[in-house]
Design goal:
about 130 residues, alpha+beta, single chain, about 45% strand
Length: about 130
């Protein structure tokens, strides 16, 4: 059986939603460009599709994974380019993944939400 750390690595590499529990609780930072709280695997997949509508080449790039037993803490960054403005987006994140029986049961997601909004908004809307 795979370790929790191996499962999270695999999820980042493949976005295999079979690794996510059917009743997952997925909490995204408020004001992220795709709502903030999702219940269930199907809604999480819809959330991922919503991001694909807004960004070219959206990637989750974990730089450090910390195994705490039933939770994995990931520090990394998102990368992509806005489909509206063409601006790049490079946003640091922290993810706390909670695991049970080899599946992801909860995600707590934390980022500076202003950064992706600056990428998708025209220059006159959001300024430094």
């Amino acid at each position: 059986m795979k370790t929790n750390l191996e499962i999270i690595r695999e999820f980042y590499e493949t976005l295999n939603f079979e690794l996510v529990a059917p009743d997952v609780d997925w909490k995204v930072s408020d004001s992220f460009p795709a709502d903030s709280h999702y219940q269930g695997r199907k809604r999480v997949q819809e959330w991922a599709a919503e991001l694909a509508v807004q960004f070219h080449d959206w990637k989750n790039v974990p730089e450090q994974l910390l195994d705490t037993g039933d939770a994995i803490i990931a520090l990394g960054h998102y990368q992509g380019r806005s489909k509206v403005t063409g601006k790049p987006c490079n946003v640091p994140f922290s993810h706390i993944w909670f695991m049970k029986d080899g599946r992801i049961i909860r995600l707590n997601h934390h980022i500076n939400t202003l950064m992706p909004h600056r990428a998708i908004a025209p220059n006159e809307v959001l300024k430094n």
